[in-house]
Amino acid sequence: MPQPVGAIANRFLLCAIALFAAGGLVCPQFTSAEEKGSAEVTIQLHVMDESGQPIPGAHAVVAKWTGHLEPLGDFQPSDKNGQAELIFPYSDNYFYLVVRAESMATTSVYLHLDPKTASQDIEVTLRPVADSYVTVTADNRPVSGAEFSWIEFTENNGEKVVWRKEMAEALDMPWPQSDENGKLRLPPVPRDAVLDFKVIHPSYSQIRQEGKRIRDGEIATVALSPGVPVVVDLQIQNEEGSRLAEGTSVQVQMFSPGPSRGADDIIHPFLTSDGKIEFSASPVSYNVLKITTDNYFVSPTLYNLSTIPNPKLDLREAKDFSLPVKLLPKRKARGHVVGADGNGIQGAYVYASYPNTSPSDIPNSEDQDAQKIALTPGNWTSAGKGITDIDGYYELEAPAGILAVEVIHEGYFSDPTEIRFVWSGEYAEPFPNYVIHRVPKIRGKVIDQAGNPRPGILTRIRHEGRGDADPVAITDEQGEFVLKLLRIPYAAKSTGLETNLSVLAFDPASNQAGLSQFNVKDKAATKSLVVQLADKPTGWVLDHFHTAPTQEIDPLVVEEIEANKKKYAQGLPGNSVPDMRDGTWLNTEAKSLEDFRGKYVLLDFWFIGCGPCERDLPSVHAAYQAYQDLGFTVVSMHISGQPVEAVREYAQKHEMDYPIFVDGAAGTVTQAFRDLGVVGFPTYILLDPDGKIIHNDMVAVDYSLRMEKLELIHEAIHSGRKSPNATQ
C-alpha cells in the first residue's frame, strides 16, 4: 500500500528524538550573535542537606545546553544560610542548575523557563557522596584505563541526572579511569541512588549495566570483550602532513538503532595519537557516525538510514573499520536575515553546510559541480549554526569555500530553500543577505450540500511534501477555520517547496467529509477556501490525496518495519499493553489503564523538552476534543525523569486537559513499553475498547498515528474496528 512521504520522513524524526532522549544528538538550540535586549533570569537558590539544614559554602552555576554543556560564569558560593543568587540572560536553550559541595554528590536541576520567567526560587537537597567503585576486567584480568562514558541516576524528587565525560570536564568534575587493579571509582554521585552506567575502553566493546545500588565499596564487576577496532585518520585540509596536536580531544558520536537500549551507542571523547583516534565499536549495524573537535569541522558525517544507505557502518561482519576524514578550520562568519521589506528578522535559526567533496580550502567560484550537489546529509556536512538578534544579524562558524545557508523561522519560508555561494573565510566579508517571507494563514469555511455552515468540523492541511506536525483546527459556529502553517513543507520528489496543498475537512460524528486544493503562494486563495462536505464511505479520510498517487514505500523502510515486528513483537496489533499503575495520574479519577475499558484510547508518549512532542500537542488536543463524546479518550504518558509537579505545571500551561500518567521515579512503566517499541518520542499507540492494540507506529507500514491520528481514530470509531488476534 502506498505510504505518504511524511510518514516515511517521520521515522527519521523519531530516530533523532530517541537519540536526544538518550543524551546523544540533540534538538538544536542556539546562541545569538549578539543577545540584544535579552531578559535576565534570577535564581534564588536554597541549598540544604537531607535533614533540612542549610549548607554554607556550596557552589552553584547555571549551564546551558547548546550541543554541549556551557557554564554561564563561575560557580557562586552559598552563604551561611545556604543561599545564593544567580543571574543570567534568557535565551532559547535548555538550562540546568548545577550544585556541588564538599563530601556531597553533585546534582543538576533542569530549569523550566520561558521568555516571561523573571525569577525562580529553587530548593536543592544535596546527598552524601558514596565512596564507590566498579571493578573492570577482561579475560579474567584487571583492566586499567577504562572510564565511564555515561552514568544516570534518579534524584529524590524523581528527576533524572545524566553525566558524560565532556559534561564533567566543562564543570571541572572528577572523572576517574580504572587503575592497575581495574578499580574504577565513581564521580561524586549520591549514596543509595540506583545507577545505570556504561564503561568504555579503546580496546574493548562498550558495556552497559543497570540498576546498581550505590553504596560504599564495590557495586559491580564488568567484564569487557573485544570489539571491532576503529581507526579515524584526521587529515587537515590542504596542509599535507599536518596533524592535530598530540592528545587533542575528539568527540565521537556513533549510534545504532538496535534493541540494546543504547548499549552499543558511543558518545565519548578520545585523544589523538599521531593524528588518529582509535577505539572499539560493537559488531552491530550503526546508522550515524559524527566526529567533532574544537577549531575544526570534520567531514564527512556518515549516515546509514533507509534514505541514505551506507554499508560502511554495518560492522556485523567487519574485522576492522578505517575512516579518513578531512578537517577544515572553523572561521567566524556573519550575515543578515531580512523580510521582504528589507527589515531584519529576529529569532531566525541559521544553518551553514559545506560539500563533502569540497576540492580545496577556498574553491573556485567556477566549480559548478559542487554548486549543484543536492543538499542532503549524505552529500553535505553541517557547519555552524546561529540565531538572529533583534536587528536580524547573526554570527556562526563556517569553513572557507562553497557554502549552503538555510534559514528556518516559525511562520516564515524562503524560496529557494537555501542560498549557495563561495566565501573567502574573512569575517570582513559578510554572507549574502537572506530574504524570508511570511507564511500566510489559511482561512476558509466548511459548508454542507445546501451551503449552510458546519460548526465542529475537523480541518487539517494535507500535502505530499516533507514536513513535521501539520496544523489542525475545528470550525467555529460560523463554520470558519484558520490553519497556521509553521512553514511550507519541502517537496518530496524534487528540490524546493511543496506549494500545492489541500485542506481536508471531516465530521467527527459521521462519514461526511470534503477536500479543497489550493496553492499556498496564491494569497487570494488562502483567504477564502471553501470545503463542501458530502457523504463518503468509511475510511475515505485515509485516502491521502484522492487526485494523485502517493509515493511507493521505500523497500528499506519495509525492511526496517519487518525487523521491528520481530524486535518489538509485543507491540503488534492484537496484543495487550502494560498497565499504568506505578506512577501518578493527573486530570482523571482513573487508577490504571483498565479504567478506560470500553473506549478507544490513544496512548501518547512524550517528555518535557521534546520539541516534536510539543508541536504535536494541537492534534492530540483536537482528537480529544472531537472524539471524547464518541467513546474515545487520550491517555498521555510522560516517561520517567521529571517530577510530577513539573509535569502538572507544563500540562496546565499547554491546556492538556485529558488524562495524563506520569511514570514513577523507577521508570518501570517506561521500561515495560520499550518492549513494544516506545523508544522514540513522540510515539503513539491506538487501543480498541478491549484494551488491545489496533495500531502502533513502530510496526506499521501503511499509516502513521504521528501524521494521521485524527483520520485513524475516525476510521476506527466509524468502522467499529477491533484489534485482530495477536500475531507472533
UniProtKB/TrEMBL annotation:
Coiled-coil parts of chain: none
Short name of one Pfam family: Redoxin
Signal peptide location: 1-21
Molecular-function GO terms, alphabetical: oxidoreductase activity
GO CC terms: cell envelope
Organism: Blastopirellula marina
Protein name: Thioredoxin domain-containing protein
Keyword Acyltransferase: no
Keywords: Cytochrome c-type biogenesis, Redox-active center, Signal
Domain called Thioredoxin: residue spans: 566-722
GO biological process: cytochrome complex assembly
